[in-house]
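Suppose you are handed only two things: the residues of a chain and a line of SMILES describing zinc ion. What would the bound structure be? This form records exactly that question and the answer produced for it, so the two can be stored side by side and reused later without any lookup.

QUESTION INPUTS
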Amino acid sequence: MFQWKRAGGYGKQNKSDCIEMTSFPYVDAHCHLSTDRIVSHGFGYSNSDSFNYVEYRDVLRCVMSNNQFDLMKVKKIRNNSMLIRSFGIHPWYSHLFTLKDDIGKLEHYREVLQWKDEQEFQKLVEALPPPLKLQQYIDDNFNANEFDVIGEIGLDKLFRLPDNGFYTSVDTGRLTRTQVKISHQVNVFHAMLQLSKQYQLPISVHDVKCHQVLFESVYDILGDQDAINICLHSYTGSVEMLGHFWFKKFNQNRVFLSFSGFINFSNSATAMPLLQSIPKESILTETDFPIDLQTEQELQLEIKKVYNGIREILQFESEDALRALVYNNTQRFLKRDVEQ
Ligand SMILES: [Zn+2]
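ANSWER OUTPUT
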């Protein structure tokens, strides 16, 4: 997930921006529902029914959960062939969870955060909720019948906590200099990988500047789990890392890259070497957007931007051909039957 601000200004849309009906839907293999500040500040779970999400049947969507707040929304969307639910803990929210059985709030945050300014740390702790026990959270909320993917999970070396304690989708506070220790992020990440292993579910992974540790974690826990597929979402590592590690050490048909407009197509030079180095069968597409905060038209424009970018770089003769490829890739990623 990237930190998203409602920008507006997509300009006027015309007829050609509308999705034409073909036999293969677009795929948004990694999107979200918003983490809501008002709900979040209750430190509890949302019982609110008042959120909007798009159920547009010409886009196959895989909706991530990041934390205890958006999870309640994800659970409310209908899990069907076009809307897939995913269960995860994003590294940006890993500090909200403890692996200990019995630990006080202050002691927990002292253990998992690293900070430069004691006063800033104290203020953050005041703003933060008591940590949830990770295993309890999984036991209470994860049900294999309700989720088809484990995500968003991963590691992030760069992010800093906002002064309200954790990111919300809109109106996040000022950034502090406080971070979550990588060792804690790794512990939470490992627990989620174990969940994937236990239920044989594919994973959707976030990686910022932790390429080697993240690879080793996935390889250690899922290396021999041939039925579990891996989606590296908005991948920002090197081509070499893909070639020497991901596609070499794993059976290559287990590894997928899902391309986003914001990260991979911020300019086409970013996506090009990746697209040219991986098998076509590994290509997925995504917005990484909170779908309840965007209009359907904005979502369509964003996903179309990704398809157009891929089509141009790989010189697909038609959009239909690319749509067929990505849709079939997604079906394989999700371990569903492949339409030929
Ligand atoms: Zn995401």
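WHAT STANDS OUT: Residues 9 and 308 are 20 Å apart (CA to CA). Residues 1, 30, 32, 64, 152, 288 surround zinc ion (CB under 6 Å).
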